[in-house]
Design a protein that fits this description.
Blueprint: H1 2-24, E1 38-42, E2 45-49, E3 56-58, E4 65-67, E5 77-83, E6 86-91, E7 94-96, H2 101-105, E8 112-117, E9 120-123, E10 128-129, E11 139-144, E12 148-156, E13 161-164, E14 167-172, E15 179-180, H3 181-185, E16 191-196, E17 202-204, E18 209-210, E19 214-215, E20 220-225, E21 229-232, E22 265-270, H4 272-275, E23 283-288, E24 291-297, H5 300-304, E25 309-314, E26 333-338, E27 343-351, E28 367-375, E29 388-390, E30 397-401, E31 408-412, E32 418-419, E33 424-425, E34 431-434, E35 441-448, E36 453-460
Parallel strand pairs: 22-28
Antiparallel strand pairs: 1-2, 3-4, 5-12, 6-11, 7-12, 8-9, 8-11, 9-10, 13-21, 14-20, 15-19, 16-17, 16-20, 17-18, 22-25, 23-24, 23-26, 26-27, 27-28, 29-30, 30-34, 31-32, 31-35, 33-34, 35-36
């Protein structure tokens, strides 16, 4: 009889607790009480208890805490992160339960191409994993083959501050609501630039540019600081929301092929003075070796205000065999297309020496400013030659055909370091390269002639 009374008392206590829980928080599904303790899970909440403990509830909004005598259970929430096909930046507003980064990303299975940040990278197809753990308050670069979702389970943060180093940092979003980039930075002089990972969005207060508007939950960004500082994310009540139309990678009436975005980029700002040389709705393209790797269009309101704007130029994608973007040291070429007239013009550019990259060459996280333009000028001729690299990938020996009278040939590794190379010219005019003594990886062959500079990517396995 004592056992029956004891069990009834336990069940009554738990039912009373869950009744209070239902009134003040959210309801739980049906569950079974065992005589040695049990748990209940419903949606975003997980409840655990030990039989016989006195229970005291403290329920307060979304960050619910339940204290059970000496045992405090975990309240788990779930965040669904939408992934687009290709590259993007991601982060979470939860401290993950599973802190193994590869364990979290493994749910994407064969759809995952690569995930990386400053800690390392996880590249399943190459059997490489140096990523380690997903610590809280982190952001990642990620590439997937198809649009998909990533689920993160964990606990909400108690502290919404973020310590940032001098220079470039990853910027996660620590709130579950959109956060105005202006509210977050609040005019902090140490914040130089925020830019989206593999997007055109830029916050550049020096030039009055804000094409980001809101930092979105689940997304990841880059931030550049002039000194070490701490940012605190404002709460989700009382903050302003800034609606900015997303910038298209290719405007609908663009003459050029669709731009492929990557996490590595170079920002080019057109200052107020340069805007005076343009027309409303002009489309500005950035070209690397004849490929359009960055584009933007002047909107009517911005043009009327003669407002500075930026163009994001994207680097080559290291996970593909073809060269589809800039490599370190490539010449930046600008073109303008006017939809009204159908004219395409090459631009001669005057660079502002006040920004670090004023030599007109691409650099990782490069910053350049156009202070003057000469449109319809005679620019460098583009190569119409069909260049072929074979075999590619290669075990070490490969050929490049379609190049006449090369003036300079360079072989660069993935860090942009120039390596010695002595290609042979064969009877058919093709160039033969031998990189068998170099480690496996990705290399770039840059060939300069009197008329153009061409870079080809080679994968050695």
């Amino acid at each position: 009889m004592k056992t029956i009374k004891f069990s009834c008392r336990i069940i009554a206590t738990i039912l009373l607790l869950l009744t209070n829980f239902q009134i003040k928080a959210q309801s739980l599904s049906s569950f079974v009480v065992a005589n040695a303790g049990t748990s209940a899970v419903n949606g975003a909440l997980s409840l655990e208890w030990t039989v016989g403990e006195a229970c005291i509830t403290t329920l307060d909004g979304g960050n619910t805490i339940l204290t059970q005598g000496f045992n405090q259970p975990t309240l788990t929430q779930y965040q669904i992160i939408d992934l687009i096909a290709g590259w993007s930046g991601i982060s979470s507003y939860l401290s993950p339960v599973n802190v193994s980064a590869s364990g979290i990303f493994s749910q994407l299975s064969d759809n995952l191409v690569i995930a990386k940040n400053y800690s390392g990278f996880y590249w399943p197809s190459q059997n490489i994993n140096t990523l380690g753990l997903w610590y809280e308050k982190e952001a990642f670069e990620i590439k997937v083959n198809e649009a998909s979702v990533l689920q993160i389970s964990g606990k909400p943060f108690k502290d919404f501050s973020l310590l940032l180093n001098q220079g470039w940092n990853y910027l996660p979003v620590l709130r579950k609501c959109p956060v105005s980039v202006e509210d977050l930075t609040n005019g902090h002089p140490g914040i130089e630039i925020i830019k989206g990972i593999a997007t055109n969005g830029v916050f550049w207060p020096q030039f009055g540019i804000n094409s980001i508007g809101n930092l979105l939950p689940g997304k990841g960004y880059f931030i550049k600081c002039s000194s070490e500082l701490t940012l605190t994310f404002p709460d989700c009540t009382g903050g302003k929301s800034v609606e900015i139309s997303p910038e298209l990678f290719n405007p609908e009436n663009s003459l050029w092929p669709v731009v492929k975005s990557t996490p590595v980029s170079h920002l080019i700002v057109f200052t107020d003075e340069a805007v005076n040389e343009l027309n409303t709705e002009d489309i500005i393209g950035v070209f690397a070796n004849g490929q359009c790797v960055g584009v933007t269009q002047l909107s009517v309101p911005d043009f009327g205000a003669k407002k500075a704007f930026s163009v994001t130029a994207f680097a080559d994608d290291p996970t593909t065999t073809e060269t589809d973007g800039f490599v370190e040291g490539d010449v930046i070429q600008l073109k303008i297309f006017s939809p009204g007239t159908g004219n395409q013009s090459i631009v001669k550019t005057g660079w502002d020496s006040s920004l670090p990259n004023f030599n007109g060459l691409f650099a990782q996280n490069g910053l350049s400013a156009v202070k003057s333009l000469v449109i319809n000028s005679t620019g460098p001729n583009e190569s119409n030659t069909e260049i072929t690299v074979f075999p590619n990938p290669t075990t070490g020996i490969f050929r490049i055909s379609g190049i006449e009278n090369p003036q300079k040939i360079s072989v660069l590794n993935s860090n942009g370091m120039q390596l010695k190379s002595f290609p042979k010219t064969l009877a058919d005019g093709s160039l033969e390269f031998d990189i068998t003594d170099l480690p496996t990886g990705i290399y770039w062959i840059t060939i300069e002639t009197n008329d153009f500079t061409k870079t080809e990517k080679v994968v050695k396995y």
